[in-house]
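haha ok so turns out i had the wrong file open the whole time. this is the CORRECT one, sorry everyone. sequence first:
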Amino acid sequence: MVAIPPTRYVKSDDVHIAYQILGEGSLDLLLVPGFVSNVEAIWQMPESAAFLRRLASFCRLILFDKRGTGMSDRSSQIFTLEQRMHDVQAILDEIGSERAALFGASEGGPMSLLYAASYPERTSALILYGSYAKRTWAPDYPIGWKDEQWESFLDNLERNWGTPEGVSLSMWAASIARDQRAAERVTSYLRAAASPGAVVAIMKMNREIDVRHVLPAIRTPTLILHRTAERVSEIAHARYMAQHIPGAKLVELPGEDHVPWVGDQAALINQIQQFLTGMRHTHGPERVLATVLFADIVGSTERAAALGDYSWRELLEAFYAKVREVLHQYRGREINTSGDSFLAAFDGPARTVRCAGAIRDAVRSLGLEVRCGLHTGECELVGNDLAGIAVHIGARVAGLAAPSEVLVSQTVRDLVAGSGLALEARGMHALKGVPDKWRLFRAILD
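then structure:
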């Protein structure tokens, strides 16, 4: 028997994130848990303890509790995929892990997808189990839950959390639902993992998640595992991801349990071990998922003509300095400047939206007004520069923005679920040189 690893903490922004490390070796595997977890209580269940020890037999296994759950700082606030992604980065930096494989279980999948697309150079492999790219029904996604299913599910969670009825064990862990002792172990674990308020907040964010547009940007070796008869996240979600992630391998396993360590865990772990230990080395990434921000000065031609070349150049330099100052505060990266336009890139869209609002406010002290356009998409890495259709779309969105307006694409809107940002629909627009029409939104930041 391997000793239970000690719990450690790392500070991510202003939140303390609990994590544990078990096992050793050259391969790092970070387990991104489902909607709730507790890194200490999980060892009280023999099924989950055996599952974790088996994983740690062929890698250095990293466990953590997402902010708001388990041993990490608690809150009933909704936390975004972007914040959770940075929590993962903080843990890996703290333990000196340059590259890690991510194992995203259930709700852990969307964040793992976003991380792998945003940080391909730090992601050696991606494993998704019982997961999805979107949970909610849409005309172009009929496999998601409809509103009435969500309302019934959320109401039951809030009223009965911490009981077999509150977590619908027959749905989540069908093979142990009638085993009273096993069922009590699971419900005790869930009570230790999160409060009713936190659980409802988390699931409300899950209701809004849509990372479908991220799937084609995944360049990391990807394994998708799913049990064919489970009902929390139906097999159609796995098949959808497999169809849209380049080169992804889908393995459909028999069984009806959603919880990974319940049921035939050996079949699951064998697939993971074979995938990770048999992987071939891949070259460094040439493409990356990023949110691009264009900030353009309004009325620049008229202003330059009125000021003259020398004074206009001085004003431009002051504008660049203001933007760089704000960019540093929001952890953005300057890509280039071109006359009256400033291009920056970020690894998270919510921070980008807020940075755009801060830039708009900061340059007013110079007597300038800007229009800002944002888009999240796959970009080509050309040295320190970015290129590709995503950059082109960002520029076109900025061109449609009104003075002092922060205009974002549908893609950005889908990724800021739970951020508290208010976005107002601005209709469908044709973007010059870009196929199809695009739905745009105005960020309300006043």
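Residues 309-329 form the longest helix (21 residues).
again sry for the mixup
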